[in-house]
Amino acid sequence: MQFCSQCGGRVTLLVPEGDSLPRHVCQACGTIHYQNPKLVVGCLAEWREQILLCRRSIDPRYGLWTLPAGFMENGESTSQAALRETLEEACARVELGPAFCLINVPHINQVHLFYRARLLDTRFAAGAETLETALFSEDALPWHELAFQSVTMCLRAYFADRLSGRFTFHEDSIVRAPRAANGRPRD
Amino acid sequence: MQFCSQCGGRVTLLVPEGDSLPRHVCQACGTIHYQNPKLVVGCLAEWREQILLCRRSIDPRYGLWTLPAGFMENGESTSQAALRETLEEACARVELGPAFCLINVPHINQVHLFYRARLLDTRFAAGAETLETALFSEDALPWHELAFQSVTMCLRAYFADRLSGRFTFHEDSIVRAPRAANGRPRD
User: What number is the ipTM of this complex?
Assistant: First the structure.
């Protein structure tokens, strides 16, 4: 961030009075521009013991498999976001179940939230950001071709709960060392 | 938003190609500025059947009671945010329990998330945004002086679960008609 979105003035990174963290503050109009984590919301949708996955047609992770999910929009609820993303990415209509799995991804300022859901029919199809959609049973799941660690964690939690016969709400974090300026992981 | 935070150029509200919602797009450099909901995270901290509340020393809702909570920061997890806000607002140290209650507040583009927690000691005190802190039993709770509807909903869910002897994860939404430009609720 270089400029103020309100007045177009230059912003400076400084700790405002009474605050404890550096913020982008406009030198002209004084507006403080806060930056906060984003929610990524999606569905783990079942159809007769199988799970709906989407193969990504966009970067990052082009060609790898994911649960239908995406950035929550202003003006909607988390459950509305989950339904919308499932429709957009997999053209799939679901009955939403409970929130199932929350994964923090602090090194990229994201929180991922997945709902359990039940497909209403099998008329799903690839959306604009998807190469193909398919149902997978647990033993056929492409574990080594999953796009995101949060998807792997959510699916593992789901199959563990299903085996135990009791679904609970899960929370976890992905902890990764920040990368140095040369792109290599720090020690 | 009037100006591009990257280059200082003018932004226009339009639906980018392949998108379905209007975004602020820079007419000079083409950057698309997405705006997304923010997470507010806090604690429902117990001490021997009592709950810790904070009386707000800032607007909005100056003088009313709330659970310690605030905007999640970049680079932290939801549980780290809950611990930090509880320390900042109530100078209280807690042992965090599970995520307990998620309340969508779509008309102000927020998602509120409260954890259950256990106070480690009673050496709490008013932080910078708090007039006073106090412990309340269920029958002494200032129900008519609570600052936010999400706090009321979380506390109601907590006491209902405590009565039933079984705590589960709760999710709800606050649905409010958008206000017209004159500040009055729409029909």
Answer: 0.93
